[in-house]
Specification:
heterodimer, A: about 250 residues, alpha+beta, Immunoglobulin-like, seven-stranded mixed beta sheet, 6 helices, about 40% strand, B: about 300 residues, mainly alpha, two-stranded antiparallel ribbon, two-stranded antiparallel sheet, 11 helices, 5 strands, about 70% helix, about 5% strand
């Protein structure tokens, strides 16, 4: 059983290697590949797993970071106004990854100093977002933390880092969960090999999360021809109502 | 079983949406109300973006009112002339409502606006309905027996655009039904509710329409305003979710039949007390959201 599983893993890895790094694979200290390079959202979608395999030939710690699609985010803060909780202040941040998750081979503080993690955006407390306007640094920090908590509540940011599983000395696996409300778009998976608190190697792989099949067609229809789409929705409603009328008629 | 909503871009349990559709349909079968007041807050509570909840609700309103309109039409209980004038106001109201919705969303106050409107409208309607049905249950004669408002006669007769409505036997300014329709249109496109509970009393007490024609005519207006609002939300905001609408409507059609069967067996006053309680519970729940300190005061959205 273990042998078969190992073989499958190896084959997947081999395939991934051939696919992504046909030339440079041989001399690298760090090689990574995804079990699947896309996540398809179809009608029954209830979340997915991103599985990354990799091999490192030199010692060091590992960090795997998934983030994507970057958008502008407006963060609002509720304040009590005459007893009612109302959105008052707002702050706009540029290029915020709507989804973020990461896996580490060692605890966050041991793996690298904060400035290195900041520079490479490894870990939630290393994420820094650019506000649109000049704001008081204290406020920026509060709104940024609010943004992170808000995304955590939505299940789009993790509460804690996942761990990286070593299948033997150099062969590792990281699996990260994608919730069903994941935004569609382009994602990047970065894998870092960290030695003595410094980044020794980094590999970035793109990942595409997109709707497929019927839901993709509905989405496209709605966005490309809103009028016709609206008319079909109304037609469906009228037909259902008419059907009910025929069925209900008792005379 | 889970189902992915392509426009809301999220997965929901199909059975809860079906159950919601059933409940909404049931209400419309028993009481003749649209049930949108239940659907919109529930969808938002489930995590459906308010814009999608409101945009999709229009389609559900169409499905719920088609059967009613056809039934009333066969019995000749629809004043199409009156309905048409109301619809003209309703169209303007929907457009204005979509504009207001846009603006509120831009300023991050759409949830507040929806909650406040619900609390104020539903709270007052619910309490009035509860008081009225309690009184009629205790066999007290109702004090307001279709007496048109005192001010009505003088003020309404001075308005321009006086128009004859032969079916309703009324001679009244077209601005009055158009104004009532306008309010209905606003409600559909901002809150996703048909507003029958507001239109029906307005048509009886302000307009003075014969009670027999009111239900069919208001449904006629709600059906077309709902269709218009769906079209505009689909065209301008892309916030109509076909899959969500289909499941809601499926539940709604079945629920409406169950409701009609049940309505033949229950007594009016008791049923109205139950409805009033339900309306009040929804508005108290929404008032709670406004008054109690939220667990997280920061919210992030990508505009």
């Amino acid at each position: 059983m273990m042998f078969v599983r190992g073989l499958v893993v190896l084959l997947i890895l081999l395939f991934a290697l051939l696919e992504s790094f046909p030339v440079r694979a041989a001399q690298d200290d760090l090689t990574v590949g995804l079990a699947a390079d896309r996540v398809d959202i179809s009608t029954g979608f209830s979340g997915a797993k991103i599985v990354l395999f990799g091999v490192k030939s030199k010692p060091g710690d590992l960090a795997v970071v998934v983030s994507g699609p970057e958008r502008e985010m407006r963060v609002r803060r509720k304040e009590s106004v005459g007893g009612l909780w109302i959105n008052r202040r707002a702050m706009m941040f540029h290029s915020v990854p709507v989804y973020y998750d990461y896996a580490l081979s060692r605890s966050e503080s041991d793996i690298a100093p904060l400035d290195v993690r900041r520079e490479n955006r490894i870990g939630l407390n290393a994420l820094g977002f650019d506000p649109e306007t000049n704001e008081d640094p204290d406020d920026i920090g509060k709104f940024q933390e609010g943004l992170i908590r808000s995304q955590q509540i939505a299940g789009l940011y993790p509460l804690a880092p996942k761990s990286i599983v070593f299948l033997n000395d150099g062969f590792f696996r990281a699996s990260l969960d994608v919730p069903s409300n994941v935004p569609t778009g382009e994602y990047t998976i970065r894998t870092f090999l960290i030695r003595d608190g410094r980044i020794a190697e980094m590999r970035a792989i793109p990942l595409r999360i997109a709707q497929v099949g019927l839901s993709a067609r509905i989405y496209l229809f709605a966005h490309e021809n809103g009028l016709l789409y609206g008319l079909s929705t109304i037609l469906l409603a009228i037909m259902a109502g008419f059907g009910a009328h025929i069925f209900l008629r008792r005379d | 079983m889970d189902i992915y909503l392509p426009i809301a871009e999220m997965t929901v349990p199909v059975q809860s949406i079906l159950a919601l559709g059933l409940a909404v349909g049931f209400l419309s079968g028993v009481f003749g109300v649209g049930g949108g007041f239940l659907a919109t807050p529930f969808l938002i509570f489930m995590g459906v973006p308010p814009a999608v909840a409101v945009g999709t609700q229009g389609a559900q309103l169409v499905a719920a009112s088609v059967a009613g309109v056809l039934g009333h039409w066969r019995r000749g209980n629809v004043d199409f002339r009156m309905g048409g004038v109301m619809l003209a106001g309703g169209a303007l109201g929907s457009m204005a409502g979509i504009g207001i919705f846009h603006l509120l969303r831009h300023f991050g106050q759409i949830d507040l606006a929806i909650a406040v409107l619900y609390v104020v409208l539903l709270g007052s309607i619910g309490s009035m309905m509860l008081a009225e049905s309690m009184a009629s249950l205790m066999k007290k004669p109702s004090s307001q027996e279709n007496t048109p408002l005192a001010a009505r006669g003088r003020f309404l007769r001075r308005l321009p655009l006086q128009m004859r409505f032969p079916r309703s036997k009324l001679y009244v300014s077209a601005l009055v039904p158009a104004g009532i329709g306008f309010i209905g249109g606003l409600l559909v496109s901002i809150m996703g509710i048909g507003g029958g509970f507001l239109l029906v009393p307005a048509m009886i007490y302000i307009l003075g329409m014969p009670t027999l024609l009111v239900a069919g005519t208001s449904l006629f207006q709600i059906m077309l305003t709902g269709a218009l609002s769906t079209l505009m939300h689909a065209q301008m905001n892309q916030t109509v979710d076909f899959v969500l609408a289909a499941v809601l409507i499926l539940g709604g059609v079945v629920g409406a039949q169950m409701g009609v069967l049940v309505s033949r067996r229950i007594r009016g006053a008791q049923a109205r007390i139950a409805l009033a309680m339900l309306v009040l519970i929804v508005s108290i729940q929404l008032a709670g959201q406004l008054l109690v300190r939220p667990l997280e005061i920061y919210t992030a959205v990508s505009p």
